[in-house]
Here is the input.
Amino acid sequence: GEEVAQTPKHLVRGEGQKAKLYCAPIKGHSYVFWYQQVLKNEFKFLISFQNENVFDETGMPKERFSAKCLPNSPCSLEIQATKLEDSAVYFCASSHSGTQTLHNEQFFGPGTRLTVL
Amino acid sequence: LAKTTQPISMDSYEGQEVNITCSHNNIATNDYITWYQQFPSQGPRFIIQGYKTKVTNEVASLFIPADRKSSTLSLPRVSLSDTAVYYCLVGDLSNDYKLSFGAGTTVTVRA
Here is the structure.
């Protein structure tokens, strides 16, 4: 598609429950990124993929967070045993492999708002 | 990635020009300056990118002085729909693909 799609739009979980978020990147884009926006404007990078391979996972809390980008499937971000502090908007972005004139413009989806009660 | 500093908020009125200055004193030779815009309840959207001097597109202009230690995003004749958070990012995105957002500048346009 021409836009990054994210589902669901909203997700409510009780503490300790599992949450799974999905992202369909723009067709033809090689890179997928996950970001977490906790407070109003603060973004935290979580993980990126180059096709189905993990590219950079330096931002992932590895104990409870995992992510995949499998061929012919939406990418997913899964949180096991959610905590109150996981409440945030999770954005997925995709980009084409870098060009010489435009350095990796990232196209963001609308986000998934996760509320942990 | 180079640290950036920009005003927390700015108010403006419809039809005015809005200029947001971002400081990035530690910018490196290979770093580019990129601005993103985020409307409420949406993901960020790329606005403009530059390396030096001036860049203009249909949405905004970006002014970068010779020393590149700051940059100014200029939004001409703003409308109510330009109310958003504007983020200044600096980095060598050919080597480090992840984006590092600061706090951004909340621009509020009033009628």
